[in-house]
Amino acid sequence: MIVFEKIKYKNILSTGNTFNEVVLNSSKTNICIGKNGEGKSSILDALTFVLYGKPFRKINKPQLINSTNNSDLLIEITFTINSDSYLVRRGMKPNIFEIFENKKLLNQDAMSKDYQEFLETNILKMNYKTFTQIIVIGSSTYMPFMKLSPFDRRNIVENLLDIDIFSKMNVILKSKISKTKEDLTHASYRLDLTKEKIKIHTNLLTDSSSNLDNQILEIEKEIQRNTLQLSSKEESIKDLQNQIQEIIINDSKLSKLTEKISQLSQYSATFKEKMKNLNKEIRFFNLNDNCPTCTQSIPESFKQESLQNHNTDLLKYTKTLDSCTTEMSIISREIDVINESLEVVKTRKIEIAQKEFETTSINAYIKKLSKQIKDLHNKKQEDLRKIQEDSSLIKKELDNLTEERNVCLSKQHLQSIASILLKDDGIKTKIIRHYLPVMNKIINKYLQLMEFYVSFTLDENFDEVIKNKTKESFTYHSFSEGEKLRIDLAILFTWREISKMKNAANTNLLLLDEILDSSLDSLGIDEFLKILTSSKDETNTFVISHKMDITDKFDRILRFTKVAGFTKITVD
């Protein structure tokens, strides 16, 4: 239960720079009286501003500051909740908003809006609408429960029953549902993307393997072509080598033939020289009869014998020279044949060397191609290993994303169930159904206490069904203003009683601004005051009124007057 103890305020509306202080829990019934404009209702604006940061009446916040001093608006309120004491201080020019719990300032790191939410949610545990339905009631701005929209009616009842937590949970749940939907969409997208990655990797593996196989096949064909060329070259070398073997060359014979022809050439030269000398002597004997040296006569017999011998020798030398020439010709032809054979062998050897160079080049090329095939096989294995590793990682990612998506689906399913439970027709409706009979019973109790004998019932949508003794049905708007006020007050007391049951918005304070000055007749006022005085609870009621003739019915009188233009409060 919240027990409001004291409020003090300055520089708000007609209140000056000196604090006006009101003890809130000293008397059961209190009446605030004074002329119009004396500042009676300022206490309402001070109370709602310090707790909720907004005035009770339709006044702009800057207009709350006293126009004379135009600064240093400050309001402080103290209250207890169970064993904890609180002080809330709020002001403008300068802006102040502080909450003390057991004389310790609560953390102010959060923004002002969050700080206010903390005050309403964790400390007061009631929002502004509920506060102005069961604690602060003003005739000028008060909107009776029966004139509220169905949505606002439900919000107030939920706040009273402390089940608005389900609405807050529903708001949080909607955010979580949206987040889960977003996560599910993202997970599904990533899952599809990963599946596409696997497909691409599979195609890449196939294409890479196929490309490498095609390259290997082309190189193997090139090796095959070069192997055929190599075989052809080797066959040619063997053929050339066989051709060389077929040419039998006797180097010693060539040397002997050369030596022999050289000897024959020498013999021929010798024979020619001897034949020349013989021809010279024959010509001498034929031309001379006397010796040119001794001038003696040459005998004819000697001459004829010498000529005959010389001619015989000349013939012999001629035959021998012809024989040498013939033999030399034969030997020369034989040497020419041998030389021709040697040229053929030389040519064949050159061809063999060329073929052997070509076979060496082909072998080197085949070796190079074979290394390329080996490298391609290694690359194929390496690419396969890398792709398999990547595929394994992607598969793992796929499993994780599948699990993530399944978690999102499971979460979405649970959230859909929770959403059904947290809707207005879910858990909250069941709780409201449980309390509706109690609410209707209490409302009718207060109506009878105020001598308004009708049967009043609220349904699940908080629409009213009102019947008189003859069971004739009415609506709220069918009654006079005084009868409506009785219904409004009965509902007000009912909400306060329900709040005590739930200990949610249970408080000692009730402020009524000119409620008794409007439509309630003297009998209604007496019945209303009888309810206040006969109640055994700890409610401290403050009634703001112009009716001076009812002051004797209250425990304490607070008089509001203006002194030097500023509101002053005195207590009787």
Summarize the structure.
By secondary structure, this protein is of the alpha/beta class.
What's the topology here?
Layout: E1 2-10, E2 20-23, E3 29-33, H1 42-52, E4 73-81, E5 84-92, E6 96-101, E7 104-105, H2 112-124, H3 128-134, E8 136-138, H4 150-160, H5 164-246, H6 251-287, H7 300-422, H8 427-449, E9 455-458, E10 464-467, E11 473-474, H9 481-502, E12 509-513, H10 522-534, E13 540-544, E14 556-563, E15 566-571
Parallel strand pairs: 3-13, 3-14, 8-12, 12-13
Antiparallel strand pairs: 1-2, 1-4, 4-5, 5-6, 6-7, 9-10, 10-11, 14-15
What is the assigned CATH homologous superfamily of the largest domain? Helix hairpin bin
Separate helix tally: 10
- Round the Cα radius of gyration to an integer and report it: 68 Å
Q: What is the count of distinct domains?
A: 2
What shape does the CA trace take?
rod-shaped
> Which architecture of the largest domain would the CATH scheme give at its second level?
Orthogonal Bundle
Tell me the total number of β-strands: 15
Q: Examine the coordinates and then state which fold CATH places here, giving the name of the CATH topology of the largest domain.
A: Helix Hairpins
Query: How is the biggest beta sheet arranged?
Result: 6 strands, antiparallel
Q: In what order do the strands lie side by side in the largest sheet?
A: 2-1-4-5-6-7
CATH class of the largest domain, named: Mainly Alpha
Average pLDDT reading: 84
Q: Which percent range describes the beta-strand content?
A: 5-15%
Structural class: alpha/beta
Q: What is the CA-CA span between the terminal residues?
A: 28 Å
- Contiguous low-pLDDT stretches (5 residues minimum) are none
Instruction: Give helix % range.
Output: 55-70%
- Secondary-structure element order, as H and E? EEEHEEEEHHEHHHHHEEEHEHEEE
